[in-house]
């Protein structure tokens, strides 16, 4: 019990959290925030351990039946809105800590995180314990070693150590099929944006990281303020652009894979058209401005729709920049012309300086190479212009010029 007048430890905990939430942090000095954060991390670790212990006891006593639930996992999901993954983690780690007393003690003391406990939990799976027993492995030593790693080593090293141990338990077993564990789930949101998550085996993950990292490291223009995560997102889109442009992907629905956007002509030519004007081939909704951006270096197919929404006439594709003209633009510009960017030509779109929908010509004088990122910028207020001497200049939406520092030589 604490020294206050609260009746139970849980009441004390609630009061302490309320007091912490009521503290004014704005007047505190930086080091005080670091000290406070450290104390709270330890407290969070201890709370996670206590919650895990409680959930395990609830599982053993079938406490969820009291509320008509079949399991503690379903009770956590239904009564406290935990995700299926988080509820499963609590149940799984509760079972594991029963078999790993050294780890349980460290968790209760706040010395290891819930994330570390979850990483070690597979060591205590029934089939893993059975394999260890069959080979005479002292699980207590493994418990102590992995707990020490959880307390002192980076989390990535801990996961690697656990992986090595699990692999050594079955060194002569059949090589697993890596495709069994690969997965990719794509979720489209109402605004057309996409979220995805997935799992890759070690080799597949290495290939993916190598491909993305090569583009991320190659695309580092001067003055780049993107976070590493933003750079990774741009690199992934560029990777898709490169694959689509190469023309070597398998056909999709009988055609070479490409980005498809359907939009009414009135919205396409109206510079003030709002969001939701265009629809992509996979069902995303984009603005007319975004559709015009894609049309800079694409094909346009005219389809006349009758009053019953039936196609009446299908016109020929009109390629805005034919291959011979694109090659001429690439020869002249060599890379993205946006100030400070040197993205190679094969990453770039050919942009109309005066948009084709505004009667801009499809010719060399009215074209510029822009990478995907800077093509977007130019369609959102930035501007590039080629000078009579062949040099490119870039302006921000407020009219100020982006000037890239160029070193100069001082004569002796």
Automatic annotation (TrEMBL):
It comes from the Bacteria. Residues 324-376 form the HNH nuclease domain. This is DUF222 domain-containing protein. It holds the Pfam family DUF222. InterPro entries: DUF222, HNH_nuc. SMART domains: HNHc.
């Amino acid at each position: 019990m604490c020294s206050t007048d609260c009746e139970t430890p849980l009441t004390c905990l609630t009061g302490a959290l309320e007091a912490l939430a009521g503290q004014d942090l704005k007047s505190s000095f930086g080091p005080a925030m670091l000290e406070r954060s450290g104390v709270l991390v330890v407290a969070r670790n201890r709370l996670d351990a206590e919650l895990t212990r409680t959930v395990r006891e609830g599982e053993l006593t079938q406490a969820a039946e009291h509320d008509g639930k079949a399991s503690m996992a379903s009770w956590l999901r239904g009564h406290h809105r935990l995700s299926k993954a988080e509820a499963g983690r609590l149940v799984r780690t509760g079972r594991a800590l029963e078999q790993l007393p050294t780890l349980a003690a460290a968790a209760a003391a706040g010395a290891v995180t819930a994330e570390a406990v979850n990483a070690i939990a597979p060591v205590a799976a029934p089939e893993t314990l059975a394999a260890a027993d069959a080979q005479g492995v002292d699980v207590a030593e493994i418990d102590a070693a992995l707990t020490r790693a959880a307390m002192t080593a980076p989390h990535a090293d801990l996961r690697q150590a656990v992986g090595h141990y699990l692999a050594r338990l079955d060194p002569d077993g059949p090589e697993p099929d890596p495709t069994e564990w690969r997965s990719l789930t794509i979720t489209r949101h109402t605004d057309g944006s996409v979220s995805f998550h997935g799992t890759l085996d070690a080799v597949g993950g290495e290939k993916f990281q190598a491909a993305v990292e090569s583009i991320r490291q190659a695309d580092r223009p001067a003055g780049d303020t993107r976070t590493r995560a933003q750079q990774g997102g741009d690199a992934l889109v560029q990777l898709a652009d490169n694959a689509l442009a190469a023309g070597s992907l398998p056909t999709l629905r009988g055609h070479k894979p490409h980005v498809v956007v359907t939009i009414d002509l009135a919205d396409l030519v109206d510079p003030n058209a709002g969001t939701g004007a265009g629809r992509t081939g996979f069902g995303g909704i984009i603005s007319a401005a975004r559709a015009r951006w894609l049309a800079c270096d694409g094909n346009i197919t005219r389809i006349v729709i009758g009053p019953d929404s039936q196609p009446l006439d299908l016109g020929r594709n009109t390629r805005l920049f034919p291959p011979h003209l694109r090659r001429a633009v690439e020869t002249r510009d060599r890379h993205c012309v946006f100030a400070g960017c040197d993205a190679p030509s094969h990453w770039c779109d050919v942009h109309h300086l005066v948009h084709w929908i505004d009667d801009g010509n499809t010719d060399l004088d009215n074209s510029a190479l822009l990478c995907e990122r800077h093509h977007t910028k130019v369609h959102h207020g930035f501007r590039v212009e080629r000078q009579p001497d062949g040099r490119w200049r870039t302006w921000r939406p407020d009219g100020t010029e982006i000037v890239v520092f160029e070193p100069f030589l001082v004569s002796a």
